[in-house]
Amino acid sequence: MQIVSNNPSLSRRASEALKKVIDPEIGLNIVDLGLIYQIDFFEEEKKIVCTMTLTTQFCPMGESITDAAKFAIQDAFAGYEADIELTFEPAWNYDMISEEGRMFLNM
Q1: 8 contact partners, CB below 8 Å, separation of at least 6
Q2: Which fold has domain 4-104?
Q3: Domain extents in the chain
Q4: In which region does residue 55 sit, left (phi positive, over 0), alpha (psi from -120 to 50) or beta (all else)?
Q5: 2 pLDDT band (50/70/90 cuts)?
């Protein structure tokens, strides 16, 4: 799944940081799982906004995953504040898993 961004080069760096965040129930990182929709950078405010979803609205690990995503971005971009915005539109589905993720999950 292609991640939308207002700064593609910084978005790639943020995506690499987010690959360290693993969905504990599935065992796959949240980027390859297709949970990250958009990453935007606001230089003047030193702010990064990451729009993501969860596999379900009632994911029991949702808060843990979003907190880990926030900390991963902030670790990769010292001095920036990260905001995580959850959305469920479009709803996540298996088609959003990357090719690497499919190989990892033997799909």
Answers
A1: none
A2: GMP Synthetase; Chain A, domain 3 (3.30.300)
A3: 4-104
A4: alpha
A5: confident
